[in-house]
Amino acid sequence: AQSVTQLDSQVPVFEEAPVELRCNYSSSVSVYLFWYVQYPNQGLQLLLKYLSGSTLVESINGFEAEFNKSQTSFHLRKPSVHISDTAEYFCAVSRGGATNKLIFGTGTLLAVQP
Amino acid sequence: DTGVSQDPRHKITKRGQNVTFRCDPISEHNRLYWYRQTLGQGPEFLTYFQNEAQLEKSRLLSDRFSAERPKGSFSTLEIQRTEQGDSAMYLCASSFEGDIYFGEGSWLTVV
Questions:
Q1: A5-9 contacts: CB < 8 A, separation 24 or more?
Q2: Do A36 and B91 touch (CB under 8 A)?
Q3: Which chain B residue's Cα is nearest to A106?
Q4: Averaged in consecutive runs of 10 residues, what is the pLDDT profile of chain B (111 residues)?
Q5: Of A41, A46, A106, which has the smallest distance from its Cβ to B42's Cβ?
């Protein structure tokens, strides 16, 4: 079985500062990894994913995440955040080769302050 | 592509009543998933369908919960004899052997 740990429930940061949201996973088999973002009162939107190949993946709005197999991590980073990035961010894992069930972490609230 | 649609978006019900949520997946998506999300928590997997076949059910899906996808298109999630602990957002998602797309969820409040 797979599991995901997001140790930080909330990360406050000032606008234009860099941020890192941490995600660690546990699995005995190969995995696919995902970051989803949830704005208030909305569903989840896929931000980026790692399936295979390059361990560094990027989103269209400046976020990136790096798959680190030895540390079983998939931390999300952005070099300069905007107010509009304020949202809940969820890390998720699925069994490699089968995106049929996502296991989510408990989420990290990114609170960007002016 | 109109996205995953869920109805109703909000439902307030009295304890003991039955409620039903509907999900319309993205057209031609053969996989459909139901998740439950409570405040401060990540979504928890409930069940998923491939076409009309229900392939997996979580232990969270008690006997009071039933999900159907009769024609392999829309799906319904029914909760019988609701309890206060059922208060949550119920998320539907769909995919076609690729990215999983979520709807905006159906909020359930049991009073």
A1: A5/A105, A6/A90, A6/A91, A6/A105, A6/A106, A6/A107, A6/A108, A6/B42, A8/A108, A9/A106, A9/A107, A9/A108, A9/A109, A9/B40
A2: no
A3: B42
A4: 89 98 94 93 93 90 93 94 96 89 95 96
A5: A106
